[in-house]
User: What shape does this take?
Amino acid sequence: MKDELSITGATGEALPHDSAIKHVTGKAEYTDDIREPAGTLHAYLGLSTIAHGKIEALDLSAVKTAPGVIDVIGPADVPADNDCSANGMHDEPIFAETVEFLGQPIFAVVAESRDQARRAAQLAEVKYTELPHATNVMAAREAGYPNVTSPLKLERGDITAMEAAPHRLKGTMVVGGQDHFYLEGQIALAVPGEDEDVVINTSTQHPSEVQHVVAHALGVPSHSVVVNVRRMGGGFGGKETQMNLFCCVAAIAAKKLNRPVKLRPDRDDDMTATGKRHDFVVEYEVGFDDEGRIVAVEGDYFARCGFCSDLSGPVTDRALFHADNAYFYPNVLLRSHPLKTNTVSNTAFRGFGGPQGLIAAERMVEEIAYYLKRDPLEIRKLNFYGGEGRDLTPYHQTVEDNILDRITDELAESASYKERREAVIAWNARGGVIRKGIALTPVKFGISFTATWFNQAGALIHIYADGSIHLNHGGTEMGQGLYTKVAQVVADALQVDAGLVKITKTTTEKVPNTSATAASSGSDLNGMAAKDACDQLIARLRAFAVEKYGIAPEDFRLYANRVHLGDTVVEWDAFIREAYMARVQLSAAGFYKTPKIHWDRESGKGRPFYYFAYGAALSEVSVDTLTGEYRVDRTDILHDVGRSLNPAIDKGQVEGAFIQGMGWLTTEELWWDDKGRLRTHAPSTYKIPLASDRPRVFNVALADWAENREPTIKRSKAVGEPPFMLAVSVLEALGMAVASVADYAECPRLDTPATPERVLMAVERLRGTR
Amino acid sequence: MQTTLSINGTEHRLDLDTRVTLLDALRDHLGLCGSKKGCDHGQCGACTVLVGGRRINACLTLAVMHDGDEITTVEGLAEGADGGLSPLQRAFITHDGFQCGYCTPGQLCSATGMLGELAEGWPSHASADLDGNYELSQEELSERMSGNICRCSCYPGINAAIRDAAGAEGRK
Ligand code: FES
Ligand code: FES
Assistant: This one.
């Protein structure tokens, strides 16, 4: 029965983002908006101008004498270790002595103003001895470049079954990278303190790692370094490890000069000097029967990792973990090749390699469908996980929660897939310049960090004597609504209005040893940790009530801002006051670790994922076959977020992820020239989706019947990354429009990003005019 | 150089280097940090402010060029008669017009200016003719707001909010 009274902001409610009013009034404070302490200096990085070589001579005299310059710092100024590698592989110098990519930081200048520092940084005279460089996967393979980290092999069944398969197709797919272009760039403000202390205000998804890396560079214990993050102006993975370097430089300068130091690169330098999504070259072979059922898959996944390992190991691992997408491969052999290149070290980006693996699976399905002249959706459904003995992934985890049959059927039904596909085929049959394409593609995405130890989280909750609540946890807010969701969990558990819960900045001082806010795991982990803290507080409050009011434990109930004690009802704040007077501890530290998961990388076996999130999208496009230009006419999405913690936030995540995914697959093209210089280093040349690029008709629905089979927080599911890959439907629809010029006789094999140029080249290739 | 800027109804006398952009004057000299610096090159729209009701990129203009001008920033949008939020600001909250919020000040200023342009009959690239009579269709709206990047891609929410505030139909 639903009582008349209830709280505002319970889970499942579409509560606006916690900073909503601050965002629309310009009062939300980002790192660059923090009032600078008196005496703040500004640092700027000096970047290399060649892709590979030794620094023979570095003449900084003009830099040092430039107006406003206080100091120049380089490798010799790093107190302990000139390294900011996230993974302890010691392959990422703060200041390079041997240049391994164009745009690598080699020194930093510190001046009174940012403008002075920027100007001075240009005055360095550097003499290099150049070495040969390889900037892409092909060149690195030819030059025999090594892997930056150990590769992964996944194997199940018997790959020799390929030879016996009735049909076999081989191909190569080139999958492009992507720049994060978080609207707020990288930034660090380091303020020195007494002893070895330094406080860093920054915009990172991983405060604990910044703390660790800075302490390592300074040669001080972690307890001396505090890292604060209130909010980020977007992260998308680009602030998981990439902030390490900026924080190290600011902290080193701040401690050396004993003054606050701020470092914020220009957008062009930010794009040149920070890592991006890995681009891949995938070589695949798929064997299948007359029906289109897959018999065997063999794939090699070559990734441009850049000059150091960073997160390339887990990224390329995740590519293999998603090389099956939603499909059962009876016999499979997959290998990753995390190749070194003379480019900036690539890093995490929404999906973390998963999209690059998944898209090759969809290419294979396309190959089969065109070869057998069948609707690709039929081939997809035929190969979905499920049925007798068809539920084991290439990494030997059983898929237990597959709901794709229902999702794809409901979407196909509600968006009239069949009829519209027929209409598209009929339209194309008229043979005009404008061709159409339509595609329905599914997503299955594994949730959990594959580094099992990262799947832990902490939270700290104080209830003050006036009844107000202070909430802190290890997750960071980058717009995904994590703070709001966790506050809803707390409001719900303690049965008070969400307005009573103050959400406070993430800081290494309150919750230690946190994991990156990444892998879509933010609310799963931090929501549960906060819930644990609430449970502890409730247990103490209950014990107090039983003692004071002589009631049975089950007669204690928190409900709608009140405390029910048998027949007595007390206001929340009055009850908390009583508890305080009776000396009840009103603060609790909560903790959570994800159960069930384990992973043995050596054997390639385990259960790396706690559960899977699912979704499907149906997109229809029009392509001008004379220019290659196109537009997305309509997209329908049905996505699974389990039982939504906040439908408004979740829907926003699905829409935003889809459009960002579309950008990755269509307009966002990274281009390095022969010298290894990134030529697309600003939005003038790097094309990010605009309002006018979104689908003309865009229907997004959450599968309201879905719930997580696992006991996650309120049976919800992670939402940050999985919908990114729904954009594959756009690529395949474009492919269909292109294929129509050759009467669908051939798989269009569109590589990504499918820019108008590439679409036009594919049209000409299929017409045989090229 | 002595410059007087009237910002959100308050006069500020500043002594500025002639090369200081309006954006830096706002952020670094006046502590008005609502306007954001996304690219500093006029390519993202995060710094959009209104000068005499017209939207401009504050990173692309010098402060001293605006001596005596009436400037409105995001901080000034709410200073209506009752000091409450403007209809557009309220609509951004109702329709979830943001995620990280970094583009929001620019989107709001830009949308405010855009609705003014529309009312004055300015055509856009998406307009079918030049008769000065334009409906706020999805096409018109998207085209007219295409100078403001939202990397979180909240375009559906932003569009719905603007249409709602402008009295056009809501989310579509
Ligand atoms: S900061 Fe002015 S347009 Fe980007
Ligand atoms: S809300 Fe993040 S850029 Fe628009």
Observations:
- Strands of chain B lie at 2-7, 10-15, 48-51, 54-57, 70-72.
- The helical segments of chain B are 22-29, 74-77, 87-94, 104-119, 138-144, 155-165.
- The mean pLDDT of chain B is 92.
- Residues A 183, 234, 479; B 98-103, 150-152, 154 surround FE2/S2 (inorganic) cluster (ligand 2) (CB under 6 Å).
